[in-house]
């Protein structure tokens, strides 16, 4: 039976892993205390960060080996489901930082959580750490652990959430570094994105699906929408949506110059359901209506 084990509280997750609950809304879980168990699908109603101290040199990304080998971080937002159902048993390893959204109420961190896009990345888009980065991550976890083992006082919540924020800010920095160190792989994804856009407009997809969306492109490239968005932004300075809009305008200009199609026919060919939407969009970007652009180009 493909059941999902659902963890509603931090205490439930601690009990599942044979860990003591020091605080009802946050825990650093030593997964190696857990008993061997079968592979199952798991759902968490709280933020979860898995830190696996394993060698990642034999993990492959595309056709290249990845050389940051000192640990891997995987991020899950509340409500996400991971894992798969199998009959085999395994022994959990590593550490998990788990914290409930209720912990953040009234804190600075609450307003910053929306900036950490990596909580919506896929597991295959994990953060791989260098030796120095691993030490910084462990130091952040030690600071949080110290507060959890300290008797709760009026400073506890502010210090705990401040240290979580420090931890997440470092993760953001390390992801930015990872986008740079994976430049060759990222360039390949950008090239595939451009090819995918070209083939989209040469196919029947605009009539079937409308104008291309970021979600569609990310799915076709086997990436999460958030990771795809951050990657393209780092590589080009433009969001995927801006990049798509640029491609639509560029394609429209070519069709207006080379084609005998009417503006309405061009609008439908690009995936616009209503020609007037295309005309407004084109004028907003270029400063001219499609017909004005066509006339000016001819002259």
From TrEMBL:
<keyword id="KW-0238">DNA-binding</keyword>
<feature type="domain" description="HTH araC/xylS-type">
    <location>
        <begin position="191"/>
        <end position="296"/>
    </location>
</feature>
<dbReference type="InterPro" id="IPR009057">
    <property type="entry name" value="Homeodomain-like_sf"/>
</dbReference>
<dbReference type="InterPro" id="IPR018060">
    <property type="entry name" value="HTH_AraC"/>
</dbReference>
<keyword id="KW-0805">Transcription regulation</keyword>
<dbReference type="InterPro" id="IPR020449">
    <property type="entry name" value="Tscrpt_reg_AraC-type_HTH"/>
</dbReference>
<protein>
    <submittedName>
        <fullName>Helix-turn-helix domain-containing protein</fullName>
    </submittedName>
</protein>
<dbReference type="InterPro" id="IPR018062">
    <property type="entry name" value="HTH_AraC-typ_CS"/>
</dbReference>
<dbReference type="Pfam" id="PF12833">
    <property type="entry name" value="HTH_18"/>
</dbReference>
<keyword id="KW-0804">Transcription</keyword>
